[in-house]
Amino acid sequence: MRALCWNGINDLRVETVPDPVIVNPHDAMLRVTMSTTCGSDLHFIDGYIPTMRSGDVIGHEFMGEVVEVGPEVRQVRKGDRVVVPSFICCGSCWYCRHELWSLCDNTNPRADLQEPLLGYPTAGIYGYTHAFGGYAGAHAEYVRVPHADNDCFKVPEGLRDEQVVFFSDAAPTGYMGADFCGIQPGDTVAVWGCGGVGLMAIQSAYLLGAGRVIAIDRFPERLRMASERAGAETINYAEVDSVIEALKEMTGGRGPDACIEAVGMEAHGTGVQYAYDRTKQALHLATDRGEALRQAIVACRKGGTLVILGVYGVMDKFPLGVMMNKGLTVRTAQQHGQKYVPRLLEHAVRGELDPSYLATHRFSLEDAPRGYEMFKKKEDGCVRAVFVPSG
Amino acid sequence: MRALSVAVLRTATGVGFRAAFPAGRGVRPASEVNLSRPERAASALLGGVLLVRGLTRRSVGGAGIWVLGGILLYRGISGHSRLYEALGVNTAGVARREPGASEAAIEVRRSITIGRPADELYRFWREPGNLSRIVAPIGEVAPAGDGRTHWRVHVPLGRSLEWDARVMEDRPGELLRWESLEGADLPNEGSVSFRAAPRDWGTEVMLRFRFDPPGGVLGKAASERLSVVPGALAEKALRRFKSLVETGEIPTTERNPSARAGRGSD
Ligand SMILES: NC(=O)c1ccc[n+]([C@@H]2O[C@H](COP(=O)([O-])OP(=O)(O)OC[C@H]3O[C@@H](n4cnc5c(N)ncnc54)[C@H](O)[C@@H]3O)[C@@H](O)[C@H]2O)c1
Ligand SMILES: [Zn+2]
Ligand SMILES: [Zn+2]
């Protein structure tokens, strides 16, 4: 089959690779109908996340049609149209039973790569480094889905692929972020980053009762989406002297009740701290540029909640004392998709959430490298590129 | 893992060098030799091969191989097996040494919590077929009659290390302890024990085993560092055990599509 492969830093190519096969009894095989880019991919494309191997098939946000199931699969059937969360989860370990899905104990065959750094391994992910399991990704014609009964969600009639594909990753991540805020009716939530994840967090915060959502980014077209599609007030951080002052002004001097960071380790910035972070990262002295995260910590009101959705390495110069003295509650996780997908599908059926506007650019799988290029450089207002294998 | 392997290689070849020159401290007086001559030769040869082979592989299995390699090389050159000594085994026909405390023996303990009752886990562990699936990446286990199990650990060049083991202590739902029997290629002793975990966590399972270290010469510090590798193997075995009982399968990327050479497998 054809698949998008990582061959080194900034080197993606569509190649012919062997077809996947059913290996374990709970596996299903999907014919991928649509997959999409994610900000997380940029971190390893740019070489900031280790344990990729040349030749890896990438892509973790996808949907498709079931074409084959393993002997122990009970509910999922051939022909089902399904969306699959990016984390592979067994459904029976303690973490899965407690809805901490991305922490599943039983789906990372390379636990040994993660344990030295994390202490304990997490669940595996499709197409996202060997430390996260080394599973083949979904920018391909076919993908093997382990624990199919647990991880495949049937798509209700009447929804197009563009409306559903983001329920694999961007939407549940954003929704989880809003859920973590513990929103009281009328609360103000600030969201850093208006990529797919940030935009989904904004909409989710409203769905969960926020009074106001304030979105922060620098790309005018993304800020426009935040305001027009998601109903947020916006701050262009490149145009204000201080995001923190701007937020104070907008909130009667209190600061937002909750801050969601949806930017990640490659944050862009304008100040001295940014120059410092960027130099250190370029020299491989540090893995992270933490501009947005630092801002969120300072901007958050006392006793407020800080939610970290962006992906980070082992950041140094972290303002822990600020968090501590302000009594912030910090919530963070890789997305627990299996918890949120059913709710998201209900919102979609009721017409309350339609993420299809994220799919600004559509490519055939053969043109996926071009899609990533546009996504990375945010050319032509690209928010997410979607790939269609048969397209 | 790689940095460690290089450090240990240096130490291990250090042993080899010293032993090759009779004045070196690595050579033992005849009375301490408890391995027969053919066994020493085989041990040294296989050990050398394993050491080199193990270093060229990056997997946990590869790491295990070079540890075994180092141990065998040491045994072959020094003519001394620490565990043989501890277990009172002497294949050299020389007077038996006092079964001294093998303080440098490598002992590995690893624990995992599994969401199933202890009885079920105990029963599962007693099935050689299940054990075989758990240790599949490094070898196989088969019933050998008379309450024994036969273990075979794969090493390069189609060779393997083999031993028979017998359960020495059996407390259903609580503990199983085994020992390798005379003639083992890698004498060892170990146990698996089960204890109820709090709340709804299930059962805490502890795997413990001990085997012949290249102790005396490398020193205790080196032995402790060496235990990292068998530790990783023990952990892998426990994880496989857990996944198999909790989900009925072991996570794998076998036959994973990729554009690497050697297609069709990871
Ligand atoms: N927790 C999870 O499970 C999970 C899931 C998906 C993605 N992520 C992570 O979430 C982050 C966002 O993902 P995405 O797909 O939306 O990425 P994206 O690259 O499309 O969007 C990131 C946005 O952040 C903006 N940004 C950069 N610096 C900023 C700053 N200093 N202040 C405010 N905004 C800034 C960029 O302009 C961009 O619009 C990434 O780090 C990704 O790895 C996490
Ligand atoms: Zn993602
Ligand atoms: Zn699980």
Summarize the structure.
The complex is a heterodimer of chains A (391) and B (266). Chain A has 391 residues and is an alpha/beta fold. Chain A has helices spanning 39-45, 94-97, 111-118, 148-151, 161-164, 170-180, 196-207, 220-228, 243-250, 272-282, 291-299, 320-325, 337-349, 368-377; strands at residues 2-6, 12-16, 28-36, 56-57, 61-69, 81-84, 87-88, 124-125, 142-145, 153-154, 188-192, 212-217, 233-236, 258-261, 305-308, 329-332, 359-364, 384-388.
Walk me through what this model shows.
Chain A is α/β, with parallel strands linked by helices and 391 residues long. Chain A has 2 domains: 2-169 and 335-388, Alpha-Beta Complex (Quinone Oxidoreductase, Chain A, domain 1), CATH 3.90.180.10; 173-332, Rossmann fold, CATH 3.40.50.720. Chain A contains 14 helices and 18 strands. In chain A, the strands form 4 sheets. In chain A, strands 3, 5, 6, 9, 10, 17 and 18 form a 7-stranded mixed sheet that branches. In chain A, strands 13-12-11-14-15-16 form a 6-stranded parallel sheet, with helices on both faces. Chain A has a 3-stranded antiparallel sheet with strand order 2-1-4, with no helix packed on it. Chain A is globular. The two termini of chain A are 14 Å apart. Chain B is of the alpha+beta class and 266 residues long. Chain B has 2 domains: 2-87, no CATH class; 106-247, Alpha-D-Glucose-1,6-Bisphosphate, Chain A, domain 4, CATH 3.30.530.20. Helix content of chain B is 42%, strand content 21%. Chain B is built from 8 helices and 7 strands, in the order H-H-H-H-E-H-H-E-E-E-E-E-E-H-H. Chain B has a 7-stranded antiparallel sheet with strand order 1-7-6-5-4-3-2. In chain B, strand 2 and strand 3 form a beta hairpin. In chain B, helix 1 runs parallel beside helix 3, helix 1 runs antiparallel to helix 7 and helix 6 (128-135) packs across helix 8 (228-247). Chain B is globular. Chain B starts with a helix and ends in a 19-residue tail after the last helix. The interface between A and B is large, with 45 and 30 residues. The complex binds nicotinamide-adenine-dinucleotide and zinc ion (2 copies).
